[in-house]
Amino acid sequence: MPRKPTPPSQQAPTNGGRALRTSRASSGTPEKHFTHFDAGGAAHMVDVGGKSQTRRVARARGRIVMQPATHAMIRDRGASKGDVLGVARIAAIQAAKRTSDLVPLCHPLPLTRVAVDFVLDDEASAVDIEVTAETLGRTGVEMEALTGAAIGLLTVYDMCKAVDRGMRIEAVRLVEKLGGKSGHYEAA
Predict the structure, then answer these.
(1) 158 in active site
(2) What are the pLDDT digits (tens) for 3-21?
(3) 17, 23, 109, 133: most buried, per Cβ within 10 A?
(4) Buried b / exposed e across 97-124, counting CB within 10 Å, b at 16+?
(5) Catalytic pick from 38, 47, 158, 164?
(6) Which runs of E-coded beta strand occur in the chain?
(7) Do residues 97 and 134 make contact, with C-beta atoms less than 8 angstroms apart?
(8) pTM of structure
(9) Max Cα separation, the chain?
């Protein structure tokens, strides 16, 4: 059944067409809330039209842990499907470019750069990924960096699952964000 539009008197307050990220609690301190829902609880794409266009950068990391023999195959380029990390790099870049097709309320962004780096951790039998996404735009690129990291790791899994179905993808997270009104964020 179609949802009825929220009457203007019940809509979330806006600021120049932009959804407010905070409201004041009775104590006078800012109260955070989700911006992808209107006052009636319906999902909507946030209006970023009133935001300034600035340089935006985000870095995301993650890890896939595997059996030592699987790790050695990746390190020595001995996988039957070819260069695992080369394919995973292209997959991560492609995923970052297609984030708005995968995450329903993400704005499509013209990315100016996507970089993908891998580190092989022999001691832990793991592969670490770091994806950096950049744009000049009105909204951040956190989701693009996170999507790239997740899909890069899923590609490693896909290429190696024939020899190791017990691989674990771990700790996909945002580690840094620059630009925009909220400023600089760096994970602890």
Answers:
(1) yes
(2) 454 444 444 444 334 444 4
(3) 133
(4) bebbeeeeebbebebeebbbebeeeeee
(5) 158
(6) 14-15, 18-19, 22-24, 30-32, 54-65, 111-121, 126-137, 168-178, 185-186
(7) no
(8) 0.78
(9) 64
